[in-house]
């Protein structure tokens, strides 16, 4: 049988979406939403996502349509109207951009002290392409990996896609990474993240990671790559020009004794269905690299226990390891996607109960908050008080990991900062970014 010709990657955004045959499936209000909201929040999808993943007979409720197409409800009415007025009177591009920037700043894209608290220093110099929050693991944001094959509408990283330079994280070189790792033998894991680092050519990825195979970096045992390419562009692992070289590179890292893990972002079981995805997963697994599954729980995209159970079950069948269910961070379009913590915990527990032990490697629902990754374990009665039972899966202070603590139950709370300690004993777990800053000013170290 003849192999079909490899598909070429075709990005779709505001500039060309109207030329797509699917555009006529959107009603006028949906088109207007795309045209207005995408001035503020980056819109990028691709032909594969549109042809293979979105079910056009189900829009606008279709989960993958919600995942990659800007929606009216992602801005509040007043913000939407401000931008719409400019679009309607065909205002100059710079004028629209200036207003869009104002809206973006209102949307506050960097919660959890990301920019201020986790940027490490070396010899008194800040290293902006790195984050070091948890002792074992350094996050590395390669400068060339700051985009994705499609953008998730809820993504908190959108600030780095839209050209607000003062908000970008970026590392142009590996030098900072290497110097930092030399000085930090306690670091066992490097997690390359973005954007999506696998947007890069394999050659670029090699330039960043190959130096870590030198004997002086023996302590860096685990190389992880955060990616959504398996879902948004599986051709990256199968038919792209440098797909074979990517797999050869994984093999090389594994042969050098490194644990290689793709931290694969899967939002919906439909992403796992295409034949090419199955091939991509099998090819990665054949290199000796692991694939771990993680995603945020997002209203309108995947807020159903049956859906998560199915995703984990299929994942395990394909040889992947369920890893994290995240609570979506409190960023701009959040209210649109928000799932209250009480409901998130019920969805997690209902899904967890439906799967075999092999899928119960998953942990969640987890919030990446200032003190660490906070898991909502469940609810309980403490005396006559209803409480959330919480635990830290990761913490700035490793001593705090795995010790249950309690917050007052609040059915509407959707993020850690909306919770209050149940008792005085719980208060230390609720240290805030501003309190930490104050103590830093008094001499304590909060930055790794
Ligand atoms: C999640 C996360 C990690 C990795 O944590 P693991 O539990 O080891 O997967 C590292 N750094 C930051 C900032 C994180 O949010
Ligand atoms: S693939 Fe990841 S980084 Fe890219 S938009 Fe989606 S969540 Fe954000």
Describe this structure in a few short sentences.
With 448 residues, this protein is an alpha/beta fold.
Q: Roughly what percent helix?
A: 25-40%
Ligand roster: pyridoxal-5'-phosphate, iron/sulfur cluster
The neighbouring-strand order within the major sheet is: 5-6-7-8-9-10-11-12-13-14-15
Major sheet size, sense and barrel closure: 11 strands, mixed
| Uncertain runs | 164-170, 438-448
Distance between the termini: 56 Å
Shape: globular
Q: How many beta-strand segments?
A: 15
Look at the helices and sheets and give the structural class: alpha/beta
Q: Measured on Cα atoms, how large is the radius of gyration?
A: 22 Å
| Residue share in β-strands | 15-25%
Output the number of helix runs.
15
Question: What's the SSE pattern?
Answer: EHEHHHHHEEEEHEHEHHEHEHEHHEEEEH
Mean pLDDT: 90
Top keywords for this entry?
448 residues; alpha/beta; eleven-stranded mixed beta sheet; two-stranded antiparallel sheet; 18% strand; disordered C terminus; binds pyridoxal-5'-phosphate; binds iron/sulfur cluster
